[in-house]
Amino acid sequence: MDPARLERLLKDVAAGRADVAQALDRLRRLPFEDVDFAVVDHHRLLRTGVPEVIYGESKTVEQIVAIARRIVEAGGPLLATRLDDAKAAALVEAVDGAVHYPLARIVYRKKPGRARPPRGLVAVITAGTSDIPVAEEAAIALELMGERVERFFDVGVAGLHRLLDKLPRLHKARACVVAAGMEGALASIVGGLVACPVVALPTSVGYGASFAGLAALLGMLTSCTPGVVVVNIDNGFGAGVAAGLINRRGER
Amino acid sequence: MDPARLERLLKDVAAGRADVAQALDRLRRLPFEDVDFAVVDHHRLLRTGVPEVIYGESKTVEQIVAIARRIVEAGGPLLATRLDDAKAAALVEAVDGAVHYPLARIVYRKKPGRARPPRGLVAVITAGTSDIPVAEEAAIALELMGERVERFFDVGVAGLHRLLDKLPRLHKARACVVAAGMEGALASIVGGLVACPVVALPTSVGYGASFAGLAALLGMLTSCTPGVVVVNIDNGFGAGVAAGLINRRGER
Amino acid sequence: MDPARLERLLKDVAAGRADVAQALDRLRRLPFEDVDFAVVDHHRLLRTGVPEVIYGESKTVEQIVAIARRIVEAGGPLLATRLDDAKAAALVEAVDGAVHYPLARIVYRKKPGRARPPRGLVAVITAGTSDIPVAEEAAIALELMGERVERFFDVGVAGLHRLLDKLPRLHKARACVVAAGMEGALASIVGGLVACPVVALPTSVGYGASFAGLAALLGMLTSCTPGVVVVNIDNGFGAGVAAGLINRRGER
Amino acid sequence: MDPARLERLLKDVAAGRADVAQALDRLRRLPFEDVDFAVVDHHRLLRTGVPEVIYGESKTVEQIVAIARRIVEAGGPLLATRLDDAKAAALVEAVDGAVHYPLARIVYRKKPGRARPPRGLVAVITAGTSDIPVAEEAAIALELMGERVERFFDVGVAGLHRLLDKLPRLHKARACVVAAGMEGALASIVGGLVACPVVALPTSVGYGASFAGLAALLGMLTSCTPGVVVVNIDNGFGAGVAAGLINRRGER
Amino acid sequence: MDPARLERLLKDVAAGRADVAQALDRLRRLPFEDVDFAVVDHHRLLRTGVPEVIYGESKTVEQIVAIARRIVEAGGPLLATRLDDAKAAALVEAVDGAVHYPLARIVYRKKPGRARPPRGLVAVITAGTSDIPVAEEAAIALELMGERVERFFDVGVAGLHRLLDKLPRLHKARACVVAAGMEGALASIVGGLVACPVVALPTSVGYGASFAGLAALLGMLTSCTPGVVVVNIDNGFGAGVAAGLINRRGER
Amino acid sequence: MDPARLERLLKDVAAGRADVAQALDRLRRLPFEDVDFAVVDHHRLLRTGVPEVIYGESKTVEQIVAIARRIVEAGGPLLATRLDDAKAAALVEAVDGAVHYPLARIVYRKKPGRARPPRGLVAVITAGTSDIPVAEEAAIALELMGERVERFFDVGVAGLHRLLDKLPRLHKARACVVAAGMEGALASIVGGLVACPVVALPTSVGYGASFAGLAALLGMLTSCTPGVVVVNIDNGFGAGVAAGLINRRGER
Amino acid sequence: MDPARLERLLKDVAAGRADVAQALDRLRRLPFEDVDFAVVDHHRLLRTGVPEVIYGESKTVEQIVAIARRIVEAGGPLLATRLDDAKAAALVEAVDGAVHYPLARIVYRKKPGRARPPRGLVAVITAGTSDIPVAEEAAIALELMGERVERFFDVGVAGLHRLLDKLPRLHKARACVVAAGMEGALASIVGGLVACPVVALPTSVGYGASFAGLAALLGMLTSCTPGVVVVNIDNGFGAGVAAGLINRRGER
Amino acid sequence: MDPARLERLLKDVAAGRADVAQALDRLRRLPFEDVDFAVVDHHRLLRTGVPEVIYGESKTVEQIVAIARRIVEAGGPLLATRLDDAKAAALVEAVDGAVHYPLARIVYRKKPGRARPPRGLVAVITAGTSDIPVAEEAAIALELMGERVERFFDVGVAGLHRLLDKLPRLHKARACVVAAGMEGALASIVGGLVACPVVALPTSVGYGASFAGLAALLGMLTSCTPGVVVVNIDNGFGAGVAAGLINRRGER
């Protein structure tokens, strides 16, 4: 709550410049405006281009379209995840400029115009070809936020030289997202080679003892490399937003 | 690998300014200096004050003291975790200026002098009193890195108003560490109220279905709030370093 | 067993008012009438409108219809859960007045007439849109019991202000059902804000480390807020009945 | 927020009865007083005798004593759980009238005087002798709240007739707490025999596939009997408070 | 190995009644005939009518039919489990007298003629209607072995009086199979009421925290009632054979 | 309930041979005598020598001694498990003739006299030396029941020939108990070699992926050999009683 | 890094036989050529016929075909796993000589010509018919490597004599792959009978407590037989390559 | 069974050179000699120096000493694991030349003399200092087998350059044991850099989500690098024996 605004309001009332009814109305909303510090945060994020995500799995096509329309009307970038083909088709039909990315099961629409010039670089890295869909969810979330993204795909630990070859470019990144399934060792390796924070993104790629991503998740959580942080299995969106927020730390 | 240095060396050889034996010796080490991009990173971290951590649990007291001496001689800040009283006493005896923090089971020594002026603020938050030891591990790691830390302890979700009361100060932080056991809900709440990245730090505080921190870990991983990233259960050191690296993104 | 009734019976036998065969027949049934305290309880529940639930998943359509008919003939309210479209259609066809709610995969029929005037209020709350089907199972179970229900949907912890906005109305409830998937933190938050018992209802909404509702379940079980009790994942019916029974505690 | 109070305050300012500084000070605190709806709830609970619990396991003896003193000075009933003998002795020494119950590892002190006449009856039931310590934690929490408690110990399913023998008295209860380890079947049985809500309290009694209470927990969560709700393993305090709150539903 | 047979053989060789080649041939097979104690056991089982089971899930229809033909030609009773409709149809077509039981997903054929007069009684009990398919797998396996079976379906713990009503008949059984999903409490209850061994058969009926039968399995394993033994989730065949073997203990 | 007894009683009342008060008293107890079918079972077990087991782990030494005295006074055999040395010493001191078996952590006392001549043979088999304590719990339970037991220790699958060597004697058993930790394969092997039911008894012997007996438990549950049934990890008592009950099937 | 090559290069530079630019170019690549020891290893493997595997599950048909073409053009043997029928058909169409093995869900193509004469023998063993598809993946991988393979299918522990019958041939193998689902005991048994290393290959065959191969995996990991090593559930390819590499140890 | 021996024996009987009693005696033992193929294998292993391991955890000191004496008298090398200090002291006292290695909790004694000249090299690698005790168990087992071992300790993935530095020497190994806790990534990395089989040895070093070695175990099982095989957590002995057997493949 902004004491200056409050004082101004009370002085207006004391001086008769504002009547009691007006002041009462404004004060009624104050507590929520106060808690609205949170809301303001959301608005601020929105203004700077953090996409509102729609988790499509357990929603009906009607719910998804309705929420998407509200977001787009509010001028925000749009990202809907875990859409089957029918839901995606309906959403593309309903929202002008929406793009369907079937492999990643997402639909997105960039916000027209550009909120801010990109600054710094976020590297999005995958261990294998199969991790690309989840990594793309992260990369697109970052791009919708206005970040500059460079993709390094299929550089897993079985071919370590492929990764070492990329080191000079990786060193330019201010944040890394590392998507890997199976044993998820790539996050530790990258974390040991770069100086920036690494957002480890376990994927459900694998079988047997990978237990749908559990092996990669545990491996990333127990990484010996400090500076590695982890998000949920297959949570490309979360990894992208976290990396984007990290990248913005240095801005005014 | 630095092409300029290589070119210079080869020119010296071509010009007779360096003999083959000398050059051979230097080149022998080059690949490792090249891979030393990684090492250089470590050195850079070291220079800027990231403490080398000694995980004390499965090491002998002799090993711990030996490693600690090597770190201290190299001029770095020291942090040793999971020390029983005997190991801690031996370490305090062996290293001048080492401080024992029994509740957190750590011993640390700040690097004499100051590497860099603190910039930005990192908030270290706990849900309850019982989470303080783990949170202190994070806070001290941050302080050893030279970061400015503010502690917000015992502001868990059962007394939500205590947390809301702290909002204005929390909004000043450029990164948050949120330590919580039991259901770990505080990380989601904080993530929804601030705009900076939140490093969620699950603790093993709890019993029964908390399964030694598993409930908090899963809760934090599945947080609905984007921008929340997670480290291993009770990994205060890792949370601190990650938050410190995030805080530094904006520096030159 | 009612000693007065026994004594009366024995006196009748002693006085010749009842013959041995009659008395024998009545006494034969007595143990079961005694254990029938349980049965009577069920009957009492039935009379006051607790719906008999049919768990449809592993039953054939013939079994479901047969059980439903028996319930309806006995005059009870009907609730069948986990029905695919074919089973639901067959049930709606077989039972007059049965309503199909596809999203929640249930079919129900209110008992004609009204057993009792509603008293108190039960709040049914969800964290997100995706939790609504499970929450509706609870809400409809409550309505079939004759309770008064108010729905508060999509007020999850990411938008805490939305929940705080509802506080005055929430405070009127005598019991709350809180349905949430993912990390399930909402139950703790609500439990900290209201004075009545909170029935936490974990849902299987989520992916990855939510492990089909396990994360929400563990989070709710380890809630720091006393007064929070938990039911099985996606068990909307059980949550509704428990909240209804709690609401009735104050009646005569 | 109470509009009447706000209007009165503003009128006072407008009329010059209150100056701006005074009004500013009061308004500053208003949002928190508003969120204090929660706090007020806590106060209300406190007034009516819900004990503040101190979870002793990961706290130092100094922290425990300090918190206990604050609670006692505030006039509340005291309950500290999971205390080893040293912590318990220190607490008993520090707090007049504190009682140590070693088997249950708790220390408690009843609030002098009586907040309210007991109403209704809460039954606290155990399957075996080994479940008594956890059940006592529930029973004492209830007694500290001022509830009337009746204990039914060692009536597990292996000797079903022992339980049936207690039915007439069980039917008088307005809420039941059922503590059981191993397979935890007793909660289902009791739930099928009584009409009131049953708070199932899994205990960690058992070995092997009981997995420290997991078997009992899962069994209770998947109970076929509606009206059974569950708390965390060994959470006697939580079960007691929940049962107490349920018992109070009928009061004014 | 039968010494008498060996001695006879050697004496024949010594006396010239058997030549070396013949004796060699017989002795070559002796070790396997010796280990064939196992084989003989199988043959004995076969003779007494234990059906050879074909686990159909991961076999091709050709494999299933080929194995079935071999069994039938050898004169044994046939039981094939976990068959989808296509496999079942092919098997029914291929084997005269084979019967398809779609709900239990099995095909079986009784051995023509009767191996032995039934003796004793095996009770097959289910908690609910949904457990019947698995229980039928057990009952049919028992009938194929020539045992006398009595079915007690849908007598779960929610309606305890239904079970108590069956006690006199249950007491006649020499072995019980108790099939139950969800919390699986029925096995403990039955075990406490009868004097014969109880084969507990957990089923995968349930959802959420039943974790596909895990809750029932753990509950049955941790049963407080001695004399309860457990088989794998949904392993009706195994439960039936075990109960049959138990029932035969008393025979000559 | 015995109709003949009831009829006799009623005729006595009708004829004045019994007064109403007497009859009332007897009838009051009748329902429990009826449910006492269960109790009678227990009594029957007791008469035939099934020991009442005292699970010592979570009981105080006073509770253990008190229960033991009650059992011994009732004339039953005594078995107390999971006793630390202090509890065992107290029990041996309190009960004449009680024997302490420290390795198995049990105290037992045979019932003076002999209830019944042993019949059949129960084989108790272990995979390794480390499984002996748990196996002895089973063997002693069997002996207390009056069964004849033969021990086959340390015949695990790594030395298969040791087991095959024992086959002729194993074939004489009417029931087998197979105790094994680690992978627990021995139960499957034995089950394939004998014709009688095999009670598989997983032990917690092992480390790492044996997860305190879980590997053995799962291996035994998923045994391909029909006729194998399983009890809880380390539940020697339960395995012994089950094998004893199986052995008795053939008796009158 | 090869010092001789380096020295030669530097001498060329010193002598003017190589100019600085050329030398710089060669030295730039040296570190990666050095790390290329790894690459060279892969090449060596490739030359000797280790197939490059394509994990088909999470790749598109286009990706699979493109990778397969690259491998075939490079002259390597081809193995693609976890292909549904559509992917397999496309691959067979795209690659000359590719063979589809539907049961094992693989497509493979032998390398034309023969890299090396087979040496030693690798035994591939299954417990049951259902384990054959996974075992074939191992056997075909071995054959693509040029190894000699002998298959021993359906020799599980329930029919131990079948396995013992094969012992003389098994003793000729220099490495064994043992594929088994359910309890996976066969690996221990084989390990106790042969002297060569045993690669245990758990399969997901089974149901209930086999938890999709977990029981077999744990059983194999906790095998008491030294010399048994384990690969991931259903990882036929990995088991085959490991056995092939073991078989080659003795070659020059 | 050796037909030639059998034929000879029978001819001797036929010719009167052997009497029936003698022949009978020899034939009695034949089946076991046949199964003794296994035993012979064990003997062969023993002769070549595979140590018999004594798992000390659940054995008494008397049992351990007795078994050790039997092994030593048979002339074998001795290895006893998981010994507390008391057991180790007793063993060292009882067996001449036994050496206690407290950190690894083992006691061993080399076989006097040398069975065979070492051939090839086995590399034993650890990620960290804390993994050394388990790795030493493997290294000592290898040395007791007569293998040549080279240790590479503390070369984990956080300092990748340390490992790359060792590559030339690693490439000389014919088998590798890689011991790592936490995320266990080192096994994958080594597997991608060498051409020989890698025995991955997960250790229980770590905390939180390492779940006592589970994270490392799952990571190693799901390694993308073919040729990596896994043993149980902390099973240094098993890893050593497996690597030794692999190393011997090439011998005559």
What is the strand and helix layout of this fold?
The structure is a homooctamer of 252-residue chains.
Chain A: H1 3-14, H2 20-48, E1 52-55, H3 61-73, E2 78-81, H4 85-94, E3 99-101, E4 106-109, E5 122-126, H5 132-144, E6 149-152, H6 160-165, H7 167-170, E7 175-180, H8 186-193, E8 198-202, H9 214-221, E9 228-230, H10 236-248
Parallel strand pairs in A: 1-2, 5-6, 5-7, 7-8, 8-9
Antiparallel strand pairs in A: 2-4, 3-4
Helix pairs in contact in A: 3-4, 5-10
Brief sketch in words of this structure:
Chain A has 252 residues and is of the alpha/beta class. The first copy, chain A, has helices at 3-14, 20-48, 61-73, 85-94, 132-144, 160-165, 167-170, 186-193, 214-221, 236-248, and strands at 52-55, 78-81, 99-101, 106-109, 122-126, 149-152, 175-180, 198-202, 228-230.
Provide a descriptive summary of the structure in words:
- The structure is a homooctamer of 252-residue chains.
- Chain A has two domains: 29-109, no CATH class; 122-249, 3-Layer(aba) Sandwich (Rossmann fold).
- Chain A is globular, with a radius of gyration of 22 Å.
- The model of chain A is unreliable at 29-42 (pLDDT under 50).
- Chain A has ten helices and nine strands.
- Helix content of chain A is 46%, strand content 15%.
- In chain A, α3 (61-73) packs parallel to α4 and α5 packs across α10 (236-248).
- The longest helix of chain A has 29 residues, at 20-48.
- Chain A is an alpha/beta fold.
- In chain A, the strands form two sheets. In chain A, strands 6-5-7-8-9 form a five-stranded parallel sheet, sandwiched between helices.
